[in-house]
Write a structure and sequence with these properties.
By secondary structure, this protein is of the alpha+beta class. The protein has 2 helices and 4 strands. The strands form 2 sheets. Strands 1-2 form a two-stranded antiparallel sheet. The radius of gyration is 15 Å and the shape is globular. The mean pLDDT is about 90.
Length: about 100
């Protein structure tokens, strides 16, 4: 649920990957009877680093991981759904603004 300013915060783990898709997180916005569903994507360099160096991701590694440029949904977004993730202590953080027309 959004706050009185329409802002939402959530905490999650870095997503793992599966064949055929770039690393992503699904999200959905609902307002009344209307819904918008999409996906956030992560920079390939960051995903490769995490998958090659951090457990439990490193057990599978990044070999075979679909890169953003070959993911059809990422290509359709023209890169507009790519998160600008920054390291913050032992975690990663990002902000992403989405506007919806009421």
């Amino acid at each position: 649920m959004s706050d009185s300013n329409g802002q939402v915060r959530f905490t999650t783990v870095y997503p793992g990957w599966y064949p055929g898709r770039a690393t992503h997180i699904h999200f959905k916005i609902r307002k009344g009877n209307e819904e918008f569903t999409s996906q956030f994507f992560f920079d390939d360099t960051l995903s490769n680093e995490i998958n090659n160096t951090l457990a439990p991701y490193s057990q599978k590694g990044a070999n075979g991981r679909t890169q953003n440029g070959t993911d059809g949904i990422y290509r359709q977004s023209n890169g507009m759904l790519l998160l600008d993730v920054q390291k913050s202590g032992n975690a990663y953080v990002t902000n992403f603004d989405i506007g919806i027309q009421a």
